Amino acid sequence: MFKSTGNNFGGPQITFKDYQSEHEIVLNAVFDYDSTNEAYRKARQLEIYVPDLKFSKSAVAGCFFAATYEDGDIGTTVRTWIKNRNTIVIEKLTTWDNYANHRIYICTMYGLRGFRNVQFEQLKPLGISLQQSESIGYPSDQIYYETKDWVFLIFSLGEPNWNVKGKHCFLSSYRDFPEDIDAVLPYVSGMHHNGEPGMNILQIQMKEGQILIPPLPQGMSTGTGWDSMFYAFIVRERDKTSNTPGRSRWDIEALMAEKYSRGSVESIEMSGYPSMISASIISSYYGKGNHTYELEEIPESMLGCEAFLIGSHLTGKCMTLQLAHIKFENLNNKKSFTITASAGGPALTFRTFDTSAAMPTNQ
Amino acid sequence: MIALPSIAFGGFSGSAKGVTARFQNGRSILSLKSYPTGYATAAQLVRRSSLARISKAYKNLTDSQMKAWENLAQQTHGKSVFGQKAKLSAHNLFVRLNSNRAYCGEEELLISPPDSVANIPVVEYDSLTLSESLILFTEVPDAEGDLLLVAKMSDGQSKGVSSSWNKTVIISPDKVPDWGDVELTEAFVAIFGHYPIAGQKYFIELYWMDPASGFTGVPTKVSAICEAGANVQRRMTLKDSDIMAEEENYFTGMDIEFAPGSTIMTAEMEYDSTEHDSQQAICMIPKVVGDRIPNFKSYILGRSTEETGYLPHFFLIGKNKDRENYNLYANKRGGPWKKKGVIFGTCPVFE
Q: Is B110 within a domain?
């Protein structure tokens, strides 16, 4: 989570929930601003200034815009992208400038371009079947994918049912949605107001594994084929502390050694005294026999220790025993994790699931 | 006046038919008017046509403005400005900065000088591929700020030539790296009228220019021999040029790219499916292009045009085998269908 440091449109300080890795950044934020203020009027595009992001720029992505209208919010999708490490840009549409209150929903994945030698990896969606407390529309296009750090959910609910006007509706899934999500998100309800551009955008909440949809707006209409839709990348607020009292835990999705070479630390846990370390590591770095990753998220308690782990090499026609050396250091305020292929295969291409003694070092 | 081909006429001065005579330090000097040699690119023609106007404008500056330019010119002494260490007069500096600005379309003259000499970085790159069909620098880092990349290049020279830097001309005055790629093929062909020729040597200069101030950086110079068949692994992209023009197509400005991780698709394109009955836009891509990319599904946001009320959608985008080739489709989800709109966004690809 981080807070914005400023913006060019007279908006408030914005709190972002974030997941940032080498290849994708997922951000969640909701904020309002006043379209009558001078800064907004002068801005060519909306710029939000933020602390250092992992990307120095991103490809174009999408988010949602809504203006407060007398019968409910109306809006559309707008472009967004990371301009530089400290600036997130949102496309400015002036169509709704006659309404003072504007709202932006960022529930967005930002990605990169410019890679060669891309290995195509398709994700397999997880099956869901939405259950509705009130039948507000026939579900279709239900796509759900879940990682430890974020989820992606889209669905369409068909033309809104008039019978549920004025009623709250809960959506749930037979596959439980994660309970570590508490997010305010946009839902394009499929309703509109004659003569006004855009469609109704309801503010909904995903919390405790359910989606709460507030009553559909009374003063708006539906039309044949005006399906509703939901589309969001949602950051999980995963508890990164160990389930076992007395242990410290470090788990991180992927470590990039070079542009295409990754190591992946599933999890490393360390007990108190006597210090034992339990590690699940997969490394596919063919280039070298050792590598130091500079990181921010290593638990303080792990710094200044090293361990030897037994694993198996990933290459070759038969199983090769691999001895790996790991070391956590804090040198000149730079926290690092060094991994070395000590015996077995010469490169950092191995997997290990091992428990070993953690030895203190000077740093 | 006709100038006679003799230096016997002391005090004789004037110009006629490209010959200028002047009397200086007790000597009569005849000189021929110089004309630009070699190729002149559009950018250079713009600059040449602007030179007289810019030079004349300096004379119209106020005393305080001239003083300010003199102060800035003082700062340039001993520094490498415009890629070379040189002592510049205030007038020279005024002309150089403003003519550089004219290159990139900045018509308004810089009357007040920049506060100080700008520190422009050097262009870095990882590799150059020079073949009969491709001139490509890769991994060129973006410069801080809004700098533009200027590319100069010579036509092909004999292999043994060690220096032809004086034959380089600007082929592209305002390039911005495309995620690290600087491709000069089209710009080269547009200027020289042909593709590079295998076995010939080419001289290339790249430098950054600040269009606001006109300052330029030290050029990165590289010479290379065109290598037959040289190529680089291409990025996994789908562009307008990949669409089969003779087949059904409702997309324009297609700009799709896939990036690693769990493969992530980024897309930006417009559609106009006025002639199409279904709530989708579609195009055909040839087998050779489609074979590069496995079949996939992804979900990307979009909206209808301003004229139809910016109605929000998301699109199921995918690729299917279609007879000998493939089709690429964008099926609309959510909201009423309008036949024109834009698709933009980032999403992983799914089975």
A: no
